[in-house]
Design a protein that fits this description.
2% strand, Bromodomain-like, 7 helices, mainly alpha, 165 residues, elongated
């Protein structure tokens, strides 16, 4: 059982590890290859997991600051995820990771592409549910986590109640 004053860092750790584990299951178990923006969206979860482990051992004022940093990381991840949704929806371009679906290739170009596979393009939606891609779900989840972390870090009464527990 987690002591009450360590509940939020423990929850951040659990959610971050679950999100990273889920992305690895989708990549290696379901063969959904991530693009570069998908890989970038994993970084805040890893950082938040490490910070949450550190926060579990810090005194209350520092723990509160670390939870706020985790909230900022989730907020940035949400922005990146919604940017990725825009790339997938062709609202804007990310020149480094667009597919060449409309380009006619010669036989030599196709042969070269088979020998040297290119990374998955960012504008291709590999999986969606109810019209929302994995990036969209990640954006919503990260936005919610950012709000919860920043709200918890800013809620002094919660921290005062558990500071000495």
């Amino acid at each position: 059982m987690v002591p009450p004053h360590r509940t939020i860092p423990a929850a951040i750790l659990g959610i971050s590890v679950t999100a990273l584990g889920g992305s690895l299951v989708m990549q290696f178990g379901l063969d959904l290859e991530p693009c570069i923006l998908c890989l970038y969206q994993r970084l805040p979860y890893g950082a938040a997991a490490v910070l949450a482990v550190v926060a579990l051992f810090l005194p209350a004022p520092w723990r509160r600051a670390v939870v706020a940093v985790c909230g900022a990381a989730f907020g940035m991840n949400s922005a990146l995820a919604f940017y990725h949704v825009g790339v997938e929806g062709y609202w804007w371009e990310a020149a480094t990771c667009l597919s060449d679906a409309g380009t006619a290739l010669s036989l030599a170009d196709m042969h070269a592409a088979l020998e040297h596979p290119v990374a998955v393009p960012c504008d291709v939606v590999q999986w969606a549910l109810f019209g929302l891609s994995l990036s969209g779900y990640n954006g919503v989840l990260s936005l919610g986590l950012a709000a919860l972390c920043l709200g918890a870090a800013g809620r002094a009464s919660w921290w005062r109640r558990f500071r000495h527990a």
